[in-house]
Amino acid sequence: MIGSLIEALQYTFMRNALMAGVLVSVACGIIGTFVVIKRIVFISGGIAHTAYGGIGLGYYVRYMVLPVLFAGSAAIQDPRPGAWPLAGAVLFSLGAAVVMGLIQRRTSQRADTIIGVLWALGMATGIIFVDLTEGYKVDLMSYLFGSILAVERGELWLMLALDGVILALVALFYKELVAISFDETFATVANVPVDIIYIGLLSMIALTVVMMMRVVGLIMVIAMLTMPAAIAGHFFRNLKKMMAGAVVLGVCFTVLGLFISYTWNLTSGASIILVSGVGYLLSLALQPLISESQSYSRNQQ
Amino acid sequence: MEQVQELQEVISIRHLWAGYDHESVLEDVNMSVRELDFIGLIGPNGGGKTTLLKVLLGLLPPMRGAIEVMGLPIKEGRRHIGYVPQTVAFDREFPISVWDVARMGRLGRRRLLRRYSTEDNEFVAEALRQVDMLDLRDRPIGDLSGGQRQRVYIARALSTRPKILLLDEPTASVDPKVSTGIYELLRQLNDHVTIVMISHDMSAIASYVKTVGCLNRHLFYHEDKELDAEMLELAYQCPIDLLAHGVPHRVFPQHGEAGPIAVHQLHHHEEVEV
């Protein structure tokens, strides 16, 4: 086993994959903690799946629109065809964050229905765009199920930059983010710009989701976003510790999942999710013991 | 001059209509809250207590009428209100300490991108000391009892340094012994701060507050503690039962000519009416 791990690390794609796992886990742990404590798993799912519409649009523009616009020109021979679907995903997920967030804030009833509808519309749009795009679409699956082994060096820098942005935003608006998560009414009365902070949080979720798409795929993004944070929440009753715990757990799950996928030649995204899921179930089973010993030690004080 | 200050109006509500989707829940409500008042607002469920609270917090714009807090429009004036919510619906799992909850009271005083200052921390410590919760400052809020949690929420409101404390059913989720402690605390705090409290706890209303208002679509409030029969009848469908069970005789002020409402009289009144 150890020998095969060392062997695996000799490959650039494996080292890149490991780096990607670590970088994504940072954003995922911090943002996932807010998703869990603010209970916005559903709207996060909506944002993630709507991103597929952007991927479809990206493909369509790259393979159908550009060749028409620049017929015969060398301009469409860009070295990074993957940039188009990625840009589409960013556009759609950010758009979904703003629209769904506003709908949730402005309509008092049935906001979850509307979010569910947008969720499905986003995916359907993506599928139709892909249908309309002729030709080569093999790597579409990689957006749905992840392709961490195909991460390139340039993407690692992009992930690092996104981590930086998310860390900076969370640090700058920490007290407001905590306030709207804990007690929105009180935050409103204190004249915190609750709507802007909330939509900002949803936008950070959108960016995180696009990053994670590379690792586990759109379909499983929500699991990876929530499980490390939920487990950390079983152990820590302090928000910063919960975030740190979620980051560490995310790193462990991705690394372990990757090696399992490498050793037995399994899909990497699914392996990572399965490892996280087993961790989550274990933590659920252990939780009664932990909280008992915690309250015991408190009573002793 | 000092007398004028004592009587300073802190909340003024004039001809207020409020409700949802063009259906009014509150109609022509008039109220004047003066400095160091301790007002209990009672009323049946659906009578508009929550609606009035939302209007007072600037969460629900009035349909008609004017409301001012400290002479300011509500969205500015509400910074003088320390709001204490009900603690019934609460996420025990939320990873936050007593200290961090109480410190949220300083949010309105620290703009975006500003950290809490040492002055903020002093105010928070002072507020927690006032409610006797400073020793438990590092506890996760989910580990507290209902009464302790209510005290933390009061501390959070106090750390805003409010002119007015606005409480929504402060003893809804605690047992009678604990609620006595909370009312005693409120009475002490009332030395320095105006209190408006929504409650359905008649005995507490009778024992601790200075004045009572009844809210059922209309507000019946005469800036005194006398609950006259008319008020109660208008406010409640069956006021007599409530009074007879909830309030012992002695808690009603018995000062002669004003014609205090004794439970007997109400009973009598009811019998006549029915």
Describe the structure.
The complex is a heterodimer of chains A (301) and B (274). Chain A is mainly alpha-helical. Chain A has a single domain (2-300), classed as Orthogonal Bundle (ABC transporter involved in vitamin B12 uptake, BtuC). Chain A has 13 helices and no strands. The longest helix of chain A has 33 residues, at 268-300. Chain A is globular, with a radius of gyration of 20 Å. Chain B has 274 residues and is of the alpha/beta class. Chain B has a single domain (2-225), classed as Rossmann fold (3-Layer(aba) Sandwich), CATH 3.40.50. Chain B has 11 helices and 10 strands. Chain B has helices at 2-6, 49-56, 74-77, 98-103, 118-130, 146-158, 176-189, 202-208, 229-235, 239-246, 263-273; strands at residues 9-20, 23-34, 38-42, 64-69, 72-73, 81-84, 164-168, 194-198, 211-216, 218-221. Chain B has a 6-stranded mixed sheet with strand order 6-7-8-3-9-10, with helices on both faces. The radius of gyration of chain B is 19 Å and the shape is globular. Mean pLDDT of chain B is 80; it is low at 1-5 and 238-274. Chain A binds chain B through residues 37, 172-173, 175-176, 178-179, 181-183, 185-193, 233, 236-239, 241-242, 295, 298, and chain B through 57-59, 75, 78-79, 81, 83, 85, 91, 93-97, 100-101, 104-105, 107-108, 110, 112-113, 115-116, 139-140, 142-143, 156, 160.
Helix fraction of chain B, binned, reads 25-40%
Q: What's the overall average pLDDT of chain A, rounded?
A: 89
Task: Provide the CATH architecture of chain A.
Answer: Orthogonal Bundle
The helix-strand sequence of chain A is: HHHHHHHHHHHHH
| CATH homologous superfamily annotation of chain B | P-loop containing nucleotide triphosphate hydrolases
- How many strands, what sense, and barrel or not for the largest sheet of chain A? none
Tally the beta strands of chain A. Answer: 0
User: How far apart, in Å, are the first and last alpha carbons of chain A?
Assistant: 46 Å
Number of individual domains of chain B: 1
> Quick one: overall form of chain A?
globular
Helical segment count of chain B: 11
